Amino acid sequence: MIDVYYWPTPNGHKITIMLEECGMPYKIVPVDIGGGDQFKVEFLRICPNNRMPAIIDHAPLGGGNPISIFESGAILEYLAEKSGKFMPKDIAGKYAVLQWVHWQMANLGPMMGNANHFKNTAKSMVDDESKLEYGQRRFIGDVDRLAGVMDAQLSAHPYLAGAEYSIADMISWPWAVLLDRLIYTEPGSMDGFPHLKRWLETVGAREAVKRGRAAGSDLNKTKFTPEEEKARRDLLYNQTNASVRAAREAALKA
Ligand SMILES: N[C@@H](CCC(=O)N[C@@H](CS)C(=O)NCC(=O)O)C(=O)O
Which protein residue has the closest C-alpha to ligand 1 atom 11? Predict the structure, then answer.
């Protein structure tokens, strides 16, 4: 059994999609990131970076004691190795996949997070929206570049890493599928990316992808008061060294 430390966000969906694709049994352990579960000692022992997702595999590849892994890219690489699926075994094929996995981790995920922050989330956090303009230009511009990178790649190949569906698609799709809702919000503004749109539909039609994306979707249905919403936002968007230090010290002592 694999425990998945999880909250229903794009980074969480990557893992549940892969587990559903592989038919591996898993148990969701909720990490309410607005409520501060990522700073709990038990979680920091698994993930010192106070970010979900993370996993504990109680029957790890190669046997032995349970292992824990954080960072969604590392988790998908592990699950691909354990299952023997969705990553070719030959060196050229394997690195064709891994370069796109790392591309997503270093580019699409962080840039979409930042673009969404400046375009949507931060509006309620500043007194004057013009303060957001530079951040919007910087990060929406780079997301637009990355959508172009994907569209060009997908104009030549059915999937991101080539002819076969792989963890490169599973890691990129949960973010890319939000492009129209978060970034290209004007009707028709994704029309310039026909190959990306075709891939979004093809991957989204897979039953395992639907199940993985639906996993734990009831977890964040709680309605909060405006004050509670503000406290949850403050916790997520005002982190410094000071906010993790106390939790880290407690984790080390425990
Ligand atoms: N690079 C990490 C990013 C994970 C990440 O940013 N997770 C967010 C939710 S999508 C989180 O746990 N945030 C908690 C926080 O900001 O304190 C990965 O891909 O695993």
Answer: 51
